[in-house]
Amino acid sequence: MADRYLTVAQVAELLGTTERFPRRLIAERRIVFVKVGRHVRIPESALNAFISANTVQPIGDRRSSLGRAA
C-alpha cells in the first residue's frame, strides 16, 4: 500500500500542535519530509516513526519496591 503524504497543517492537527512545530521539525531535519517544488509533505510512515521514537514508556509502580511509608 502506498504511503500517504501529509501537509504541515495535517501533521499539526494529528499532533495537536500549531503548524510551527512541524515546520521546526522540518527546519531542524528531525523528521523525514519530501519537497515537491515549494510544497513540503511528510510521509505518514515518517510521522509514525517520529512518534514511536519519541514515546516515553512509564517506569512502572516504584512504590512496591520502596516499602511502606511511616
Automatic annotation (TrEMBL):
Positions of transmembrane segments: none
NCBIfam families linked to this entry: excise
Stretches assigned to the Helix-turn-helix domain: 5-54
Superkingdom classification of source: Bacteria
InterPro entries registered for this protein in UniProt: DNA-bd_dom_put_sf (IPR009061), HTH_17 (IPR041657), SinI_DNA-bd (IPR010093)
Name of the protein this chain belongs to: Helix-turn-helix domain-containing protein
Short name of one Pfam family: HTH_17
